[in-house]
Design a protein that fits this description.
The chain has 14 helices and 13 strands. The chain is α/β, with parallel strands linked by helices. It folds into two domains: about 150 residues, Aspartate Aminotransferase, domain 1, CATH 3.90.1150; about 250 residues, Type I PLP-dependent aspartate aminotransferase-like (Major domain) (Aspartate Aminotransferase, domain 2), CATH 3.40.640.10. The two termini are about 15 Å apart. This is Aminotransferase class V domain-containing protein.
């Protein structure tokens, strides 16, 4: 590339950054105020964090609540003091259930999405020859767990290729309609892909599965915390979520929803002592999926504090801002010379996960450059067997940060 070509390419990148910055109102581009989402986090001021799909920085209030409660617990770990935790767990199940329009009896408190997914994978009653449909967008933790079970029990796994550049929800739904057979017993999907950002049309897929008695599970690791969830409207039989990603809560907090009418079909994978069990009758509810032994009891208080922080912002506002910052990041990438976006740009099918490739470039070197020169945190990823960079912006990111990334990419 000639020097002039380099100048033209860099000018294109800077113009892209300028367009993104201008797309936001002045208030959004100004220095963070005391009421901004960023100021509510313990995130270092020089860190530009674009990795919510991996770990989201937690609210200061949640960290403080966890620390206070841990100190109180360690100062008095007596059974008398710990009677407060089953009560807190009951309240938290009810609060989480209300957010997702389900009952507390359908909510289990687990450690993360992977654990919730594993309960659903391992606990579902199946026999040799039964078919389970997944996609090539599923997270490896779910794919590998299903492969392990299928090999041991003679199940038939159908891993459905779904085009990353799908142009409509119906295109995706038609693929599942064609894949379902009389032997299909379950479909397990990532609600949003952790690589392409594709949001799967669960409600339309549920219209296929529910009449046939096919179990539909949604892995909500990449949606829980930023996307408003009405689980009955989505039609899923089970759904998972983690508190440490988009929810901006503590580590090792998770949720498993199991539809009340389907709980008899899904058995727990472990039964230890029920530390949060207030009544033996609750073993007939989703609480049976969380009887996993001693837990970090103070975590319950931290999750509750996280929900307080989110409610202050508002569920609708969190969703709106998450979509908006994702769109701004995507628009910037689409203007980069030589960049190609891995994933659809169709509205309604894409969320705030953006994965570009750069033809002929050393992607790992670009990622290192973003960190060493700008303290920009992104994740390594792969698409079509090739290394890529994944950006997952959230409500604490700004247009100025996106412009910084465009500038750094120009210098890279």
């Amino acid at each position: 590339m000639t020097d002039r070509s380099k100048d033209v390419s860099r000018r294109g990148l800077l113009q892209a950054a300028a367009v993104v910055g201008a797309a936001l109102p002045l208030a959004a581009r100004a220095a963070p105020s005391g009421n901004s989402a960023r100021d509510q986090l313990l995130l270092a001021p020089d860190i530009h964090y674009f990795n919510a799909a991996n770990i989201g920085p937690a609210f200061r209030s949640a960290i403080a609540a966890h620390a206070r409660e841990t100190q109180a617990f360690q100062a008095n770990p007596s059974p008398q003091y710990r009677t407060r935790y089953p009560v807190a767990a009951d309240a938290l199940r009810a609060r989480l259930g209300k957010r997702m329009n389900v009952s507390a009896q359908e909510i289990a408190l687990v450690r993360n999405s992977s654990e919730a997914n594993t309960v659903a994978v391992r606990g579902l009653a199946l026999k040799a020859g039964d078919e389970v449909i997944l996609t090539d967008h599923n997270h490896p933790s779910t794919l590998e767990t299903w492969k392990l079970r299928a090999a041991r029990e003679g199940l038939v796994l159908k891993i459905l290729p779904v085009p990353v550049y799908a142009t409509s929800a119906q295109t995706v739904v038609d693929l599942f309609a064609a894949a379902i057979t009389p032997r299909t017993r379950a479909i397990f999907l990532s609600h949003m892909s952790n690589v392409t950002g594709m949001i799967f049309p669960l409600a339309q897929i549920a219209a296929l599965t529910r009449p046939k008695g096919i179990w539909l599970h949604g892995d909500g690791a990449q949606t829980f915390g930023w996307l408003r969830l009405d689980l009955p409207a989505l039609g899923v039989d089970s759904y998972s979520g983690s508190t440490h990603k988009w929810m901006m809560g503590p580590l090792e907090g998770g949720v498993l929803y199991v539809r009340r009418e389907g709980q008899a079909q899904l058995q727990p994978i472990m039964l230890s002592h029920g530390y949060w069990l207030t009544d033996e009758k609750n073993l007939d509810t989703a609480q049976k999926y969380e009887i996993l032994g001693q837990r970090d009891d103070p975590k319950l208080i931290a999750i509750d504090a996280t929900l307080d922080a989110l409610d202050t912002i508002g569920e609708a506002e969190v969703e709106r801002r998450a979509f908006a910052i994702g769109d701004q990041m995507r628009d910037m990438v689409l203007r980069l010379p030589g960049a190609k976006l891995v994933g659809t740009t169709t509205k309604g099918l894409t969320g705030p996960v953006i994965t570009p490739t750069f033809a002929g470039k050393d992607v790992l070197a670009i990622r290192d450059h973003l960190w060493t020169q700008g303290k920009v945190v992104v994740a390594p990823s792969k698409a079509d067997g090739k290394p890529t960079i994944r950006f997952s912006p959230h409500i604490y990111n700004s247009a100025d940060e996106i412009a910084l990334i465009a500038d750094l990419l120009a210098k890279a």
